[in-house]
Specification:
With 400 residues, chain A is α/β, with parallel strands linked by helices. Chain A is built from 14 helices and eleven strands. The longest helix of chain A has 17 residues. Chain B is mainly β and 149 residues long. A five-stranded mixed β-barrel of chain B has the order 5-6-7-9-8. In chain B, strands 3-2-4 form a three-stranded antiparallel beta sheet, with no helix packed on it. Chain B is globular and about 50 Å long. Classes of the chains: A alpha/beta (400), B mainly beta (149). The interface between A and B is large, with 44 and 47 residues. Chain B: InterPro entries: ChsH2_C (IPR002878), ChsH2_Znr (IPR022002), NA-bd_OB-fold (IPR012340), Thioester_dehydratase-like (IPR052513). Chain A: Pfam families: Thiolase_C_1 (PF22691). Chain A: One of its GO terms (molecular function) is acyltransferase activity, transferring groups other than amino-acyl groups.
């Protein structure tokens, strides 16, 4: 049960994902106006704007909070801008939630948008020898898919997963994404399609790896009092049960993007709970909920194999049994706990600062019963989890 | 004719004469290791040391995982034309308790690797720049049999 302090998601809105090649601000405006319309509010009502930044769109991207505020028309609202790579949107959620819980605002908008280049994500330009992102590209050619592939290879050799197990994730997510009007790829893939898909980073094929996309998402959150005054009742509202943003604990012994090496466990033993396990654990603690309570989850399927990791990190199954879980159908629509009913990154591609916010939009629609064509039956509790570079773990839990 | 000039692609991460080794850093107080090498604060949150000193790392380790790049990585990688697929391996150094990623020696592909396989540090040319200078990088190469005593 939600407590009195649990904030309310009052409105959500998105711009469809795609490769439109337009200014990211334009997408953000569409999402912001959709969220306002969904909440039955006007822009002047927003007291705090939390922008999720993008490093790929020049200065306006670096200061997204003010960029969107200016584009919508200055109102003198309070503001924050956050960059945490893939977890930027979750940082925005945390910033807005903390501001409201501290009593400095009643209602806030969290917003993020991106325009992405074609092909591999590359570091920002210039020779920056101290930057681990520059180092891994220049010295090793260690692309993001290469890191996903190292992880996938571990699963094959340690757990006995097969490339077909990974493909099953794409098959499942692409099927769900067909019905999602905000998804970029609305095409169902089969296992047969994988044979013709080129290997990018062995053992992963192009179809195993998420694309880079343009897109935007916005969420409006508020105090229960504000929501009650506006709606007359809190009945049926979507509540924020946890926003847990977590760093690793030393030593981080799992090789993670973009680092060339792990920490050393020669002197200090590795923590009992690995990094990604701890991200989920902290959110469960905050919400007073556990994996058995989840109706559905949105996880960061940057690659198909990574989705199987998340099953285990979330406690949906024991370590090493992710492949069995996807094969059982438990994580498909109609299964015990559908994962990525939105279609996931497999159907969206990644629009970095918008993605964690889009996860919240999707969960909100699921909990309201508004996810037409990809609705999880009787959804009561939803979780979204992702991970930004250098150890920005983030996990959000919503419930009815 | 002069010999081609060769320089390390990055300074201070590996020795440039045999026996080739990676150079990490070691805390002068708690003795934990760091790679890539750096100075300044120890990464151990319970250690207040501000002194890390350069430390040669074990030459041999075992493959933790590996992959093979089939597309040319984007800049700042300097890709050969035409691009030839190559392997990367993450290698566990037992004494240091650390996993380090590196390119695998040219010609050794994913099919030649397996998790747990023993490899050792070698060097190879990463790229030749416009001035004809070769930039060298460490690689993981299948370990040669230990010389008998």
């Amino acid at each position: 049960m939600a407590t009195e302090r649990d904030l309310v998601v009052l409105g959500v809105g998105m711009h469809p994902w795609g490769k439109w090649g337009r200014n990211f601000v334009e997408y953000g405006l569409v999402a912001a106006k959709a969220a306002l319309a969904d909440a039955g509010m006007v822009w002047r009502d927003i007291q705090f704007v939390a922008g999720a930044d993008t490093i790929r769109n020049g200065y306006p991207g670096f200061v997204a909070g003010s960029t969107f505020s200016q584009a919508m028309g200055w109102t003198g609202a309070q503001i924050s801008s956050s960059y945490a790579a893939c977890a930027s949107g979750a940082q925005g959620m945390q910033s807005a939630r903390a501001q409201i819980l501290a009593g400095f605002a009643d209602v806030a908008m969290v917003i993020g948008a991106d325009t992405t280049p074609k092909g591999f994500f590359a570091p920002v330009g210039g020779e920056r020898k101290e930057d681990p992102d520059w180092q891994r590209f220049h010295l090793l050619g260690a692309t993001n898919p290469a890191f996903f592939a190292l992880n996938a290879r571990r699963r094959i050799d340690v757990f006995g997963d097969t490339p077909d197990d990974f493909a099953m994730v794409k098959v499942k997510n692409s099927k769900a994404g067909v019905a999602n009007p905000y998804a970029r790829f609305r095409k169902e893939f089969t296992l047969d399609d994988f044979a013709g898909s080129p290997i990018v980073s062995d053992p992963l094929r192009l179809l195993d790896i998420c694309a880079t996309s343009d897109g935007a998402a916005a969420v409006i959150i508020c105090t229960p009092e504000y929501a009650k005054a506006k709606l007359g009742t809190l009945e049926g509202t979507v509540r924020i049960r946890a926003v847990a943003n977590t760093t690793p604990t030393y030593p981080q012994v799992r090789l993670e993007l973009p680092d060339i090496a792990t920490d050393s466990n020669a002197v200090v033993a590795a923590p009992a709970l690995g990094f990604k396990d701890s991200v989920a654990h902290n959110a469960y603690e905050q919400a007073g909920l556990g994996p058995e309570d989840l109706s559905c989850a949105e996880v960061y399927d940057l690659s198909t194999a990574l989705e199987l990791d998340w099953y285990e990190n979330l406690g949906l199954c024991p370590e090493g049994e992710g492949a069995s879980l996807v094969r059982s159908g438990a994580t498909a629509l109609g299964g015990r706990v559908p994962v990525n009913a939105s279609g996931g990154l497999a159907s969206f591609g990644e629009a970095i600062p918008a993605q964690a916010i889009a996860q919240v939009c999707e969960l909100t629609w699921q909990l309201r019963g508004q996810a037409d064509g990809h609705q999880v039956e009787d959804a009561k509790v939803g979780l979204a989890i992702n991970q930004g570079l250098f150890g920005h773990g983030s996990c959000t839990i919503l419930s009815k | 004719m002069t010999a081609t000039e060769r320089v390390p692609a990055i300074d201070g991460w590996f020795t440039t004469s045999e026996p080739y080794t990676l150079i990490g850093a070691k805390c002068t107080d708690c003795a934990t290791y760091v790679f890539p090498p750096r100075s300044g604060a120890c990464p151990n949150p319970d250690c207040d040391s501000m002194e890390l000193e350069p430390a040669p790392l074990s030459r041999r380790g075992t493959v933790w995982s590996y992959t093979e790049n089939h597309y040319a990585p984007p800049a700042p990688y300097v890709a050969a034309e035409p691009f030839e697929p190559y392997a990367l391996a993450a290698v566990q150094l037992e004494a240091e308790g650390i996993v380090i990623l590196g390119q695998v020696a040219k010609g050794v592909m994913a099919a030649d690797l397996s998790i747990g396989m023993e490899v050792e540090v070698d060097l190879q040319v990463l790229y030749r720049d416009a001035d004809g200078v070769d930039h060298w990088i460490w690689t993981w190469a299948p370990a040669a049999p230990e010389a008998s005593a």
